[in-house]
Amino acid sequence: MKQFLAFVKKEFYHVFRDRKTVLMLFGLPIVQIVLFGFALSNEIKNTRIVVCDYARDAASQELITKMEVNRNFEVERSLMSQQQLEAAFKTGDIKMAVVFPANLNSDLQHLHKAQVQLIADASDPNTATTLTSYMNTIIASYQRDLLGDNPIPYQVVPEIRMLYNPELKGAFNFVPGVMALVLMLVCVMMTSVSIVREKEKGTMEVLLVSPFNPVFVIISKAIPYFVLSVVNLVIILLLSVYLLGMPINGNIFLLFGESALLIITAISLGLLVSNSTDSQQSAMLISIMVMMLPTMIFTGFMFPIENMPVPLQVISNVVPAKWYYIIVKAIMIKGLGFSAIWKETLILVGMNVLLLVVNIRKFKTRLA
Amino acid sequence: MDVVIKTEKLTKRYGDFIAANELTMDVYAGEIFGFLGANGAGKTTAMRMLCGLSLPSSGKATIAGYDIYKETEEIKKHIGYMSQKFSLYEDLTVRENIRFFGGIYGLPVRELKEKSEALLETLGLEKEAKTLVAALPLGWKQKLAFSVAVLHEPKIVFLDEPTGGVDPVTRRQFWDLIYAAADRGITIFVTTHYMDEAEYCNRISMMVDGVIKALDTPANLKKQYNAASMDDVFYELARGAKRKAD
Amino acid sequence: MRTLRFLLRKEFLQIFRNKALLPIIFMAPVLQLIILPLAADYEVKNISIAIVDHDHSSYSRELTAKITASGYFRLSSYTATFEEAMKQIESDKADLILEIPKGFEKNLVRENKQQLFVAINAINGTKAGLGGAYLSTILASYNADLRTQLLPPARFSAAPVVEVTSSNWYNRHLNYRFFMVPGILVVLVTMVASYMCSLNIVKEKEAGTIEQINVTPIRKYHFILGKLIPFWVIGMFMFSVGLFGVGWGIYDIIPAGSIALLYGFLAVYLVALLGFGLLLSTYSETQQQAMSLAFFFMMIFMLMSGLFTPVDSMPDWSKAIANCSPVTYFIEVTRMIILKGSTFADVKYHFLAIVGFAIFFNTWAVLNYRKTN
User: Fold this and answer.
1) How many CB atoms lie within 10 A of CB A294?
2) Distance between CA B83 and CA B142 in Å, rounded?
3) Which DSSP string do the residues of A285-343 spell out, in sequence order?
């Protein structure tokens, strides 16, 4: 036991003496939380739209005022020809044009019908859809105003209640995802590189020749990163609760327990990577190139998994982070207990067992 | 005789620590000059200065006639270098290594081709021309590395513990190569821990605690210190050293 | 220049001989480029709705039918109690609940007004917002239908109607792939070019082979060029495979603008990127350090580049940081040229920025890199 602790101590020194790596290990989660919490958002803000007002009457004025009131976009009034619009779109200056035809008001009054044209720069479909939707809402609101005092008979009014996240804070969706991402990436990368480095340098052989079970050698390598990840987790939780206003509605021990499970899964994955390659360069590249984007995407916090084509949805099931994301949301935000997430937990445990078996097999064949 | 290396009070300081202290020596063309010293004595520092790898703090020196401060690029063109730590690219083949080093030293393509073939023949490596250097036994690597280092017929070749870890037969063969190069007029500047190799040199210098404590032929040194072998000379001189190994 | 030629030969030989690396450089990015755009789709479809019907009237059934027929929603459950529906939400089987109160049909006719209760899982704010909006639209439409049913048909509607025609330029079908593929391609090329370059240099540092180079007539700039050029070539190649092989071949993305312009930008962008990799390598002693630094910066660059979320939506301080990254500019330019056919005049400021980055990073890196100390 004493010798095992000696190994662990040595590994801790390795990790903490490398300041640049430590910067990354702790800095990255903090940066991500700040970014996701404050900077990254799918909402559309500060977009420039241009209004081509050929009507210049009460109706168009009313509509323009409504648009200007909405803080999400900057309205610019300018009469642009088709060519000018194209040019403006091409430089990325504006994202949408609203065209009011001449006689808008009189058409509405006398013909009871008028057309308004929306032209969206759909190179970014998300922005286009959202802006179109905003515009539609504004126009619909104007229409309701037009109806004025006529009481509408047979009104069906929906009363909408937002569950779990009444203020629609983006952080609620992102933070569990960031937790999953950080724990996964950091553990896989660092563990795999740490083990492969010893292989590359040849010191692994020295360790293997020592009287200790190689399993303990490996575990000793994993422990600092386990501890680091737990510390990271605490930092992330503190930041999200105090800086971003996220709740922890469920049992915090359950949260830590499940997190520990994910960390172990990630470490096992890192082990698998290290068993599959002989150079640090490969280990790093595999961890980064092969794991980063897929983990980000298949966890489901950036893009909804139900949107993906079925084969990809199946693939997402293989990504441990996806299950962890569900678990964290359930515990932190919905405040549910173990009974709600036992299935996901079981899947994670199953993944761990599988990884363990594969790792032991691979390790044995290497030694043979 | 031509002096190929001339240093005058060459010094390298790192803050308060004087790694190499006022080294003054002359090395002649075509001689095999052994540069000895205990670990930490300042050998590596001195050699790095002479190779143009590090700028001296003070003192003067010319290598192959070029000034050590102002003409380092010229120096590099006229020297060769081989170290124990590394000399050839392990992931390139024998022929690729020869071609690379010959090429960057400015050998014209045709001459390069002729010389590589000749080299392969001399070393008996024709069959291994397409083998990765990593697959060669250490002794062959060393010999190849040396040959590559002198391929461009430099004025001086610097050898940093070139025969470490190699069996005695191979070491002997290595020194045959060194003699052959010296006969062609190439000055050999070699550091070593093997005292029998010290005997092969024309002259020896010993560094202790950053200073050159002795510089003479092996015979004279043995007489001077009343020693039976270079081993004993070394022991006499290095015994009082205050600095521990690097 | 001779020296450079020999140096480049050696570098290329070494890179391509590394059997483990090649699949990672080539296959992994291509695979990701094929798969990821399929996954990256913000469009909100397939929202699951749990309907709690306390009324069981023809109106409530009509409403249910309308909702399920709309194409936006999947019916996850049709239950009698709210608790059961809540369970659906808790287990993520439903995204929202519509509760129709008892006596809905009767009371609507009698009292002229009825309320429906909607509860939405708002953890994903965007999804919740859009889901709510869709449902409201359907309800409004249902309401209008109902009104036409109940009111005398001869009544001439005096209410003015504003018709909205919307057209989508450059991407008529709002195809997300067109938007994501160029962006992901840029990110992949960025990752490979900068990581590989900085790792490669640091590997030599670690192995001590740089000393050997230092003793030879190879000058500082030879060495640096020798490290940058191979990865520049690889970057260009990767981009081409991605753009033509995957973008064109699989996703039918045909660049609307000048391909020459795109490649011109790419060339300068790669120089900037490799300069950055070089810079990182000068601050790293070991491969692990280089990797950590590269990963740290790449993550930040990638997240802030506008790849996933729009730069415009960021607060000012964040926008300033985003503008300090070459990735942001290049992703925008790529999208502009490929989707909108923007010309040089449109992107000249971007060009200046990327050139600026190239000069800045490379100068800093070269100054840092000392052959003789």
Assistant:
1) 21
2) 9
3) HIIIIIHHHHHHHHTSSSS-GGGS-HHHHHHHTT-HHHHHHHHHIIIIIS---HHHHHH
Please say whether the beta carbons of B159 and B165 come within 8 A.
no
Whole-angstrom distance, CA of residue A68 vs CA of residue A56: 16
CB contact B71 to C (< 8 Å)? no
Share above pLDDT 90 across residues of chain A, in percent, rounded to a whole number: 10
Collapse the DSSP code of B169 into the 3-class scheme (helix H, G, I; strand E, B; otherwise coil) and give the result: helix
Taking the Cβ of residue B185 and every Cβ of chain C, the question of whether any pair is shorter than 8 Å is answered with no
* C10 in B contact zone (CB under 8 Å): yes
Counting beta carbons within 10 angstroms of the beta carbon of residue C360, is it exposed (0 to 12), middle (13 to 18) or buried (19 or more)?
middle
DSSP structural state of residue B132:
B
- Cβ–Cβ below 8 Å for A124 and C335: yes
Distance CA A62, CA A114 (A): 15
Chains C and A touch (3+ CB pairs under 8 A): yes
Q: Touching B: which chains, 3+ CB pairs < 8 A?
A: C
C contacts of B53 (beta carbons < 8 Å): 211, 214-215, 372
A43 sits in the region (left: phi over 0; alpha: psi -120 to 50; else beta) called beta
Interchain contact, B76 vs C217, CB within 8 Å: yes
A with B: touching (≥3 Cβ pairs within 8 Å): no
Q: Which alpha helices (DSSP H) does A162-306 contain, by range?
A: 170-201, 203-209, 214-238, 252-276, 280-285, 291-298
- What is the model's pLDDT at position B244? 60
pLDDT in tens, C234-286: 999 999 999 998 888 888 888 888 899 999 999 999 999 999 999 999 888 88
Query: What average pLDDT does the structure give for chain C?
Result: 86
- Angle at the Cα of A90 (from C172 to C238), degrees rounded to 5? 80
Tell me the residue length of chain B.
246
Q: Which of A42, A117, A306 sits opposite C126 (nearest CB)?
A: A42
Determine the distance from the C-alpha atom of residue B241 to the mean position of all C-alpha atoms in its chain, rounded to a whole number: 24
Using DSSP bridges, classify how beta strands C161-169 and A113-121 pair: parallel, antiparallel or unpaired: parallel
Pairing between β-strand C96-100 and β-strand C113-121 as defined by DSSP bridges: antiparallel
pLDDT confidence bin for B246, thresholds 50/70/90: very low
Q: N- to C-terminal Cα distance for chain B?
A: 36
Instruction: Name the residue with tokens 């949301």.
Output: A329
ipTM of the complex: 0.82
**DSSP per-residue codes, C275-344:** HHHHHHHHT-SSHHHHHHHHHHHHHHHHHHTTSSS-GGGS-HHHHHHHTT-HHHHHHHHHHIIIII---H
* CA proximity to A20, closest of B213, B45, C286, C344: C286
The answer to whether B53 contacts C372, with C-beta atoms less than 8 Å apart, is yes
More confident site: A212 or B134? B134
The model's pLDDT over B15-58, given as tens digits with 9 standing for 90+, comes to: 888 888 899 999 999 999 998 887 778 888 898 889 888 889 99
Residues of chain A with Cβ-Cβ distance to C150 below 8 Å are: 153-154
Residue A205 structure tokens: 């052989």
d(CA C157, CA C346) in angstroms, rounded, equals 48
Contact between chains at C216 and B104 (C-beta distance less than 8 A):
yes
Query: Which has more confidence, C370 or C142?
Result: C142
Q: Record the tokens describing residue B49, joined without a space.
A: 């200065």
Measuring CA to CA, which residue among A228, A221, A229, A213 is closest to residue A195? A221
**Cβ-defined contact of C314 to A277 (cutoff 8 Å):** no
* Out of C147, C289, C308, closest to residue A153 by CB: C147
